[in-house]
Amino acid sequence: MVTTVAETAGTAAVNGEHPLVRLESIRRHFPVFRGNLLRRRTGTVKAVDGISISIMPGETYSLVGESGCGKTTTSRLLLMADQPTEGNIYFDDRPMNQFSGAERRNFKASVQAVFQDPWSSLNPRMRVDQIVSEPLITHQRLSRSAVRAQVQELLQVVGLHPFHAERYPHEFSGGQRQRIAIARALSTRPKLIVLDEPVSALDVSIRAQILNLLKELQSTYELSYLLIAHNLATVRYMSHMVGVMYLGKIVEEAPPIELFTNAQHPYTRALISASLPAHPRRQREEIVLAGEVPSPLNPPTGCTFHPRCPFVMERCSLDIPVLTEYTPGHSTACHLYNEGDANTC
Amino acid sequence: MTEDAILRVQDLQTHFFTRTGVVKAVDGISFELKRGETLGIVGESGSGKSMTAWSILGMVPHPGRIVGGSINYLGENLLEKSRGEMRDIRGSGICMVMQDPLTSLNPVFTVGDQLVETLRVEYNEPRRSLRDRAIRLLENVRIPAAEDRLTNFPHQMSGGMRQRVVGAISIARAPNLLIADEPTTSLDATIQLQYLRLLKDIQEQTGAAIIFITHDFGIVARMCDRVAVMYAGRIVEQSDVEDMFDRPAHPYTEALLESVPDLDTDVDMLPSIVGQPPSLDALPEGCSFAPRCPHAWDRCQVYPLEFTVAPGHVSRCWRVE
Ligand SMILES: Nc1ncnc2c1ncn2[C@@H]1O[C@H](COP(=O)(O)OP(=O)(O)O)[C@@H](O)[C@H]1O
Ligand SMILES: Nc1ncnc2c1ncn2[C@@H]1O[C@H](COP(=O)(O)OP(=O)(O)O)[C@@H](O)[C@H]1O
Ligand code: SF4
Ligand SMILES: [Mg+2]
Ligand SMILES: [Mg+2]
User: Fold this and answer.
1) How far is residue B231's CA from residue B51's CA, in Å, rounded to a whole number?
2) What is the pLDDT along chain B (321 residues), one digit of tens a residue?
3) CA-CA-CA-CA torsion for B152, B154, B159, B163, nearest 10 degrees?
4) Residue A30 burial (CB count, 10 A)
């Protein structure tokens, strides 16, 4: 029997828990214009094109895929920095498009972000205590001493010293700056933090420190993470669920061990084959893909991966494959695995 | 110098003379490279990898200067060459592989013209046969419909295709040594794989040695025969690749290898390295890794000598004395 993921309740059904956040059939299409004076609409970039994911309380959901596949756009929707063209986002089962003013404020405090580049994400003119307490002050009315006490506590939680509060970002190394960004994100007691490539700009020898800190914070505060990362080994280390994106769509979804030992989708398999070995005697099967990711302005027909796919078949350029549960908790959108359904869109 | 070595760097010192003092970017490093061999130089940012490369190319930027040591290339000391001689060597013998292919291609000439011009330096042949060579070169770097591509301008090609054209031009120069300085850092995984394969293709067809500079041990594991680990301007460990991964003999290498997550195994918590990478203007006396080293003791206040762990495997750590 073949069920599509939209029909089942995703991972929630598996562990009987409710997702903290659920994205349902989300699309974000950007109109593209030509000309300055007489602007004409000449096309649509389907940055996010119908994805459904569930982020469970206390868990990490990771999005992987090459640049331009829609990861940041997805995270911006989650942060309410942007709105979906279609579909809905549910927070504790409440649809975002029906939020009251209070719900909206509560949501904004509950979802924070840490970005890749700790050099540009911290305001160089603000002191660390101002940086860390800024979200706190916008979301709560607190006395000065209460703010100071909270800043001290937050700095300690992320492994910095109380005296760091009076310094400016340029006095810190990359790793310490990322700790400051994490303290800032924690200040509103969030339930979910978006981590967009949180360690890839850092020196190799301090990446493990930051990853471990994030893991510890997750278990202490039952945080959920939406992790965006291109390094698959990091994703395996951090995640409970992984979604592989290609041109705005999730093409495969599974828990990390299942995904990395039993990948089905040819794109996932190519990504794994391209990830670097941890030992010279452990070389991987080489699946070298032809060409580059095509422009989302003019995506290929059928399966958007078909021009690069080493296993392409005739129907791949005609039919759009539907994300289908392959084994419980593991879904993939590829015609190699669902010969039965004939979904022509 | 061993028989088949094409490059031998000995006790190289490249310092920067800044207003606030002398920065020892490269502080006495030595290594050797055989024909067709790939050496990985790994280290964190600021450890001196790029300055090592620029020193070999004779292009150390101001206010930097090579203040000691020697760089022996095919039996001659490059430090004694004139500017003009160095320019010739960079044109054919030693090439830097650029990450951004746009900067190394001329936008106003077709790909075919650029290849033919490069080939003309190497081969004294009529245009027609140079053109045939150019087609074969493009085929060698896996460019489909190579003949049709000759009339393309760089901007008419995708980024990946341009990268291959640059690769083809590198092959045309028949280099002895290619230096690739973090060429894939900003590339996506599948594109990185294409690029690494391209470098291997170039190497197979020219027999060139490669110095691959990176901060990623995964690249070393995939690409290199030998590896030198740099920390604060010095090579702290050097060996054959397999030996380094099997038996790292410097606490820094050991800790770094352990701290990187592995796609094939599960761990609850990664062992991490304490502290921050050092700043070159405030280095400790003795071993520069000592402030972060779990094994440091009194002895480490003195700069460690280079000890041999196994044939071809050396480490600057008092523990292996
Ligand atoms: N505001 C925008 N207007 C038009 N196109 C956009 C906009 N934001 C993103 N895109 C396009 O959407 C696609 C997905 O981008 P993004 O979400 O940033 O991908 P990723 O984070 O995976 O690299 C890209 O092709 C990008 O150019
Ligand atoms: N223009 C410069 N002025 C002063 N110091 C410099 C300059 N360029 C590089 N350095 C010093 O040289 C060191 C090594 O630099 P580099 O070789 O570029 O490191 P890597 O390539 O390993 O990141 C740096 O830590 C820096 O202190
Ligand atoms: S010399 Fe000493 S400090 Fe340096 S790495 Fe070895 S044990 Fe550690
Ligand atoms: Mg992005
Ligand atoms: Mg460098």
Assistant:
1) 13
2) 556 799 999 999 999 999 988 999 999 999 999 999 999 999 998 999 999 999 999 999 999 999 999 999 999 999 999 999 999 998 779 988 866 666 778 888 999 999 999 888 878 889 999 999 899 888 888 788 888 899 999 888 877 788 888 888 888 888 899 999 988 777 788 878 888 888 888 899 889 999 999 999 999 999 999 999 999 999 999 999 999 999 999 999 999 999 999 998 888 899 999 988 888 888 888 999 999 999 999 999 999 999 999 999 999 999 998
3) 100
4) 16
CA of A306 to the centre of ligand 1 (A): 21
Q: With contacts defined as CB-CB under 8 Å, which chain A residues touch B270?
A: 208, 211-212, 237
Relative to beta strand A60-64, strand A224-228 is parallel
**pLDDT tens digit sequence for A91-123:** 999 999 999 999 999 999 999 999 988 878 899
| Cα(A172)–Cα(A176) distance, integer angstroms | 6
Cβ contact (<8 Å) for B221 and A280? yes
- Ligand 1 and A70: CB distance under 6 A: yes
With a CB cutoff of 8 Å and minimum separation 6, the contacts of A186 are A112, A154, A157, A158, A193, A217, A221
H or E element in which residue A14 lies: helix A11-15
Does B169 sit in the ligand 3 pocket, CB within 6 Å? no
CATH topology of domain A17-32+43-263: Rossmann fold (3.40.50)
> Which residue ranges make up each domain of chain B?
5-82+224-320
Task: Tell me if A205 and B216 make a contact (CB, 8 A cut-off).
Answer: no
Residue count of chain A? 345
- Does the C-beta of B48 come closer than 6 Å to ligand 2? yes
User: pLDDT for B243-293, tens place per residue?
Assistant: 999 999 999 999 999 999 999 888 889 999 998 888 888 888 899 999 999
Between the CA of A290 and the centroid of ligand 1 the distance, in Å, is 22
In this prediction the pTM is: 0.89
Q: Looking at residue A133, what is its pLDDT?
A: 93
Nearest CB to B44 within list A204, A234, A237:
A204
- Cβ of B276 within 8 Å of Cβ of A276? The answer is no
For the segment B115-133, what is each residue's pLDDT rounded down to a tens digit? Answer: 999 888 878 889 999 999 8
Distance (Å, rounded) from C-alpha B240 to C-alpha B238?
7
Ion ligand 5: residues, CB within 5 A, are: B 50
Ligand 2 touching residue B41 (CB < 6 A): no
Is the domain defined by B5-82+224-320 classed in CATH 3.30.70.2660?
no
Segment A215-239 shows an average pLDDT of 96
Which residue among B289, B299, B309 has the greatest number of ligand 3 atoms within 8 angstroms of its CB, and so is best to mutate? B289
Asked if A232 is an interface residue toward chain B (Cβ–Cβ < 8 A), one would say yes
Q: Which residues of A touch B158 (CB under 8 A)?
A: 291-292
What HEC string does A142-181 produce?
CCHHHHHHHHHHHHHHCCCCHHHHHCCHHHCCHHHHHHHH
Task: Round to whole Å and give the CA distance between A160 and A169.
Answer: 13
- pLDDT confidence of A137, banded at 50, 70, 90? confident
Residue B291, chain A, CB below 8 Å: the answer is no
Quickly tell me which residue has 């690409």 as its tokens: B223
Cβ of A206 under 8 Å from any chain B Cβ? yes
Please state at what angle helix B159-172 crosses helix B111-122, rounded to 10 degrees.
Answer: 20
Please report, as a single letter, which amino acid is at residue B23.
V
